[in-house]
Amino acid sequence: MPLLAVSGLTKRYRRGDTLVSAADDVSFTIEPAETLALVGPSGSGKSTIARLVTRLIEPDAGTILLEGTNLRALKPSALRAMRGRLQIVFQDPLAALNPRATVGRVIEDPLKIHTRFSRGERRSRVASLLERVRLDPALASRPIHEISGGQRQRVAIARALASSPTLIVLDEAVSALDVSVRAEILQLLKRIQRETRVAYFFITHDLGVVRAMADRVAVLDGGRIVETGLASEVVSNPQSEIGKALVAAAPRLPRS
Amino acid sequence: MTLLRTPTALLGFAILFALALVALLAPLLFPADPLSIAGPALLRPFQDASLPLGTDRLGRDVLAELVHGARTSLLVGLAAAATSIIIGSVVGTLAGFLGGILDEVLMRVTDAFQTVPGFLLALAFVSVVGPSLPVVVFAIALGAWTGPARVARAEVLSIRERDYVAGARAIGMHPLKIAFREVLPNALPPVLALSSVIVAAAVLTEAALSFLGLGDPNRITWGGMIAEGRTILRFAPYLSIIPGIALVLTVLGVYLAGEGVVEASAARKVRA
Ligand SMILES: Nc1ncnc2c1ncn2[C@@H]1O[C@H](COP(=O)(O)OP(=O)(O)OP(=O)(O)O)[C@@H](O)[C@H]1O
Ligand SMILES: [Mg+2]
């Protein structure tokens, strides 16, 4: 059984008199411990799909099965409980965390919701999660607005890991970071995947990142998946128009 | 501190500080019951050094009454403003964050309250329930919470679209907890910016209620003093003028200090 099975996912937005398909009959699966990349040009519907899959917005049609559970059929309280299995990291680290909260609180919140740990146990879990994302545990008492973008993205990853999810959706999670920080975060994500066997739904427009991170890739254009395949094959020999265009536009791809 | 750099803000805070000090120290400065007789009736101000502001028609010390009256004015003003900001933020947050029918209903209720003048609401409420300090506070808040509610709702509508709110939902946080812990604290600054205007209005409303005899009868209030003086306005105008000046100074102080806070926080925002 796949970890995540999405089928027929559809979402349209009204723009003036016309309907824009941000997701058009989208279907795909993700296996445990796998990384599926989703690439596509700006406005192709990547963030919409990320938010549909994580049930942050309501689809017009389609089903989302996580570990066999239909996420669209759950009552609100059951869905909240299920959310511990499925986490998301957003693109903009400056917007994704409550600026008034402390680092410790941000990471502790999912522990409060999804575990029965005591206060003391939660504190030590927060410290070990901070260490896991290579941050100083002393950072726990600092407010979010005082730390850098790269640090915030590590905190966001630590928060996503706190409830021991089986799948993390990364919506351009490294795009807003500068190049050296980006490479560090990618390595961190790789290491975490080896250690925890978490699966990633890795959204990006950077084919170099796809090649380095993903097992398989789906190419998105105008809300439709136009091509899927092994990451190495799609990057070296794209079949779809948009895939070819993305490869042509990519800066030199790193070999790996 | 930027807050004290503008002269108007400085003046406002000086007035408020002096008032607060006087109000706090009233029992020490004038330990005797301010309602007891201290000298001859209707002594003019600046005649007797021991009764610098003179006496009223019963021979009570006007300065002692004034100082004790400051306690009521400030207490009621602050408590009513705090109450209306709390009610307004809760209503505005629920309406803005949960939306839908609840938003409709809450905003219609807000509209309804807003169309009735606040003073009339307070008057009606106190007349029905009977005057006492908590009733007066609540009565004033009844006419003042709609402003904070609207501002809070508008702010919440923009904040609820932020990623960190989606993030709170994504970890499975309960919607009410998101509303009051993640959204409301971030929506509060523009609501608090209203507080000086609300405090000033509350002080005036309290005085007006007392003037009409609807204040707490066991407390001296400036409004009550003005009302008492009014009966002999021609003969002893100072009895109304002195508490009137105190009232104007208080409102001015609150207003200037509030302006200073808003300016300073605007300056901070620009720099940040
Ligand atoms: N809330 C919304 N209301 C109306 N239209 C929307 C909304 N959200 C997205 N869209 C539209 O849906 C389409 C897909 O947007 P989406 O943000 O999913 O694209 P994306 O692939 O993530 O783009 P980017 O690479 O720029 O992040 C776009 O045309 C966008 O304008
Ligand atoms: Mg996007």
From TrEMBL, chain A:
<protein>
    <submittedName>
        <fullName>ABC transporter ATP-binding protein</fullName>
    </submittedName>
</protein>
<dbReference type="InterPro" id="IPR050319">
    <property type="entry name" value="ABC_transp_ATP-bind"/>
</dbReference>
<dbReference type="InterPro" id="IPR017871">
    <property type="entry name" value="ABC_transporter-like_CS"/>
</dbReference>
<keyword id="KW-0547">Nucleotide-binding</keyword>
<comment type="similarity">
    <text>Belongs to the ABC transporter superfamily.</text>
</comment>
<dbReference type="GO" id="GO:0005524">
    <property type="term" value="F:ATP binding"/>
</dbReference>
<dbReference type="InterPro" id="IPR003593">
    <property type="entry name" value="AAA+_ATPase"/>
</dbReference>
<keyword id="KW-0067">ATP-binding</keyword>
<dbReference type="GO" id="GO:0016887">
    <property type="term" value="F:ATP hydrolysis activity"/>
</dbReference>
<keyword id="KW-0813">Transport</keyword>
<dbReference type="InterPro" id="IPR003439">
    <property type="entry name" value="ABC_transporter-like_ATP-bd"/>
</dbReference>
<dbReference type="InterPro" id="IPR027417">
    <property type="entry name" value="P-loop_NTPase"/>
</dbReference>
<dbReference type="GO" id="GO:0055085">
    <property type="term" value="P:transmembrane transport"/>
</dbReference>
<dbReference type="Pfam" id="PF00005">
    <property type="entry name" value="ABC_tran"/>
</dbReference>
<feature type="domain" description="ABC transporter">
    <location>
        <begin position="4"/>
        <end position="247"/>
    </location>
</feature>
Automatic annotation (TrEMBL), chain B:
<feature type="transmembrane region" description="Helical">
    <location>
        <begin position="235"/>
        <end position="257"/>
    </location>
</feature>
<dbReference type="InterPro" id="IPR050366">
    <property type="entry name" value="BP-dependent_transpt_permease"/>
</dbReference>
<keyword id="KW-0571">Peptide transport</keyword>
<comment type="similarity">
    <text>Belongs to the binding-protein-dependent transport system permease family.</text>
</comment>
<protein>
    <submittedName>
        <fullName>Peptide ABC transporter permease</fullName>
    </submittedName>
</protein>
<keyword id="KW-0812">Transmembrane</keyword>
<dbReference type="InterPro" id="IPR035906">
    <property type="entry name" value="MetI-like_sf"/>
</dbReference>
<keyword id="KW-1003">Cell membrane</keyword>
<dbReference type="Pfam" id="PF00528">
    <property type="entry name" value="BPD_transp_1"/>
</dbReference>
<keyword id="KW-0813">Transport</keyword>
<dbReference type="GO" id="GO:0005886">
    <property type="term" value="C:plasma membrane"/>
</dbReference>
<dbReference type="GO" id="GO:0015031">
    <property type="term" value="P:protein transport"/>
</dbReference>
<keyword id="KW-0653">Protein transport</keyword>
<feature type="transmembrane region" description="Helical">
    <location>
        <begin position="119"/>
        <end position="145"/>
    </location>
</feature>
<keyword id="KW-1133">Transmembrane helix</keyword>
<dbReference type="GO" id="GO:0055085">
    <property type="term" value="P:transmembrane transport"/>
</dbReference>
<dbReference type="GO" id="GO:0015833">
    <property type="term" value="P:peptide transport"/>
</dbReference>
<feature type="transmembrane region" description="Helical">
    <location>
        <begin position="74"/>
        <end position="98"/>
    </location>
</feature>
<keyword id="KW-0472">Membrane</keyword>
<dbReference type="InterPro" id="IPR000515">
    <property type="entry name" value="MetI-like"/>
</dbReference>
<feature type="domain" description="ABC transmembrane type-1">
    <location>
        <begin position="70"/>
        <end position="258"/>
    </location>
</feature>
<feature type="transmembrane region" description="Helical">
    <location>
        <begin position="191"/>
        <end position="214"/>
    </location>
</feature>
